[in-house]
Amino acid sequence: MDNREVILQCALELFYRRGYDAAGVQEIVEMAGITKPTMYYYYKSKLGLLEALIEEKGELLLHRILEVQSKKLRFEEQLYQLAKVYLDFGRREHYFYFLMLGLMYSSTESEAHKAAMPFISRQYELIIDTFVRAGDYLGNMNGRQEQFAIGFLGVINCYMMVYNEKSTENMLSDEKIYAVVHQFLHGIYS
Amino acid sequence: MDNREVILQCALELFYRRGYDAAGVQEIVEMAGITKPTMYYYYKSKLGLLEALIEEKGELLLHRILEVQSKKLRFEEQLYQLAKVYLDFGRREHYFYFLMLGLMYSSTESEAHKAAMPFISRQYELIIDTFVRAGDYLGNMNGRQEQFAIGFLGVINCYMMVYNEKSTENMLSDEKIYAVVHQFLHGIYS
DNA sequence: ATTTCATTATACCAATCGGTATACGAGCTG
DNA sequence: CAGCTCGTATACCGATTGGTATAATGAAAT
Fold first, then answer.
1. What is the pLDDT of residue A162?
2. Is the CB of A143 within 7 Å of strand D?
3. Residue B140: closest CA among chain A residues belongs to which residue?
4. CATH number of the domain enclosing B14
């Protein structure tokens, strides 16, 4: 792993652990075992570091979502596989996903928030599209596709917070994922 | 309004807008039209400022939750009134509630996160308690009370993000609130 | 052997960070 | 008037912030 990648990895860990603003450039390069000019040789600024992270890691998630959607499954199966993609991604790229989650809820004036929003918005567009294309199956949604998409990702993220932090075992079972989607579709009575 | 309150109000706005870490003490006192020693006369530190905010504003929300729970309503009506309390609070104390939401999702090492967690945990405890005490009505929940509480607040917060940012009119209608709770209880098919 | 180019470090920048030592002035009390 | 407390400002602290000018490296190409 060359310095370029090491820097990115260390930046991700420190952005996640300390927060983007609180993490210092000095701290990042020390962890990477290099000095500041080296970092500024590869990335134009601290913000550029974040942007590179989003570019690299974000593409992975978006690609997997598109992959599921291209499979033309029936609606519920599609939601189920999307949930699986998210929970899997949230576990394998824990630092990145939770960093994005934090930035999404951070102040809209923050530069880090602005850098993360295109990636986050793109996700929501894709999920909204899932509900739009399911219109035939679901019937008239009264334009609530966006609301459903937000609710769906909201539930997914909540469960991620609960099951992704504590025990690292068997929290990604297919039954668990099915239960999450089922709760979203049918509520808690069932 | 004396300086003590002005400082708190300005700190809240800047913590919300810039984020806790990015907001400078200098910036806060300039907005309040005073100088740093005045702020440090009333509050022991920047973190103390945040703690004072949580103490003051947080108590308002917790008190309203307890008020609903003391009314001994039937389960669904209780959830409905809790949703109402949250959506109302999120609108009237927008800066504070969204600041807390951001801190909840921020890195666990951050001092601001640690300062906010007792307040946030207290909320979840109260909501979990609602589900626990509804056990007779809901039947065996297989220990999923915490999961339900997280899901419930998750849905509430999602809707708050959607309806609290855009138009400021008629988003708090009773029908809308009922729809949110209904979706949580019965899912999106209904 | 020399030039070239990508990569890295030394040493520095002005600006800002959170926080404070000290003193000044207003108002109350003796 | 003297003394005391509350509230506030001037001026400063060391540390750290993000960022850079410059030069030394080492390997490959001529």
1. 77
2. no
3. A189
4. 1.10.10.60
